[in-house]
Amino acid sequence: MAYCEVDRYQNGDKWEGVRLFYRRYGRGATKVLLVIGLAGTHDSWGPQIKGLTGSLEPADDEAEAQRTDEESGDAAAAEGDDGDGIEVCCFDNRGVGRSSVLPHKSCYSTAIMAKDALALMDHLGWKKAHVFGHSMGAMISCKLAAMSPQRICSLALLNVTGGGFQCFPKVDGQMLSLAFRFLRAKTPEERALVDLETHYTKEYLDEKVGPCTRRTILYQEYVKGISSTGMQSNCGSTMH
């Protein structure tokens, strides 16, 4: 398994390394960094990884060999022989998945996690990358672009706010209902239904795409890989 130690923090008298767990997919000169949102892990990017590289098979063994070459001073050579393909890296933010869980709230901010992403790019030997962030990951990506614009080939943001008072939701019956259902959600499937209604309008979710609605398609993609029980590749009955 691949880890990147991004910085160090003090826990009493003992120093512990902050480690990010990451995966790499595909090979190529085009580098893509995927930054996931709150409570998500690297596993959340399955459809995007498949679409970009054509495979969900991690390239970690090859990547680790390349990283060893880079650490010995051969980073330029390692970048130069990648060809015309696409290489994708996704990772667990600090505090989730297989990455380090830090003891204090002060250890978590979008600016700190943007520095984590930069440290990961350095660890991989990537001078520049196309950066795609989702939700909180998009906020982290904005900070990353502001800190080091020279490291960004392109910036793609999904389900993100620019901040300010205008980003606060209107307190109405729908918002209170979503908050209540969110608190009661016990499974990934229940959480998926609430998240979809939080991020998309009813009109968009009810729109037909072939025999399915967007709600059904997005729901299936959301829970794919988390819970395969009862899931179908078509528009079978998966929701209640």
TrEMBL record:
Residues in AB hydrolase-1 domain copies: 79-160
InterPro entries: AB_hydrolase, AB_hydrolase_1, AB_hydrolase_fold
Regions that span the bilayer: none
Residue numbers spanned by region Disordered: 49-81
One Pfam family here: Abhydrolase_1
Coiled-coil residues: none
Official protein name in the record: AB hydrolase-1 domain-containing protein
Organism whose genome encodes this protein: Oryza meyeriana var. granulata
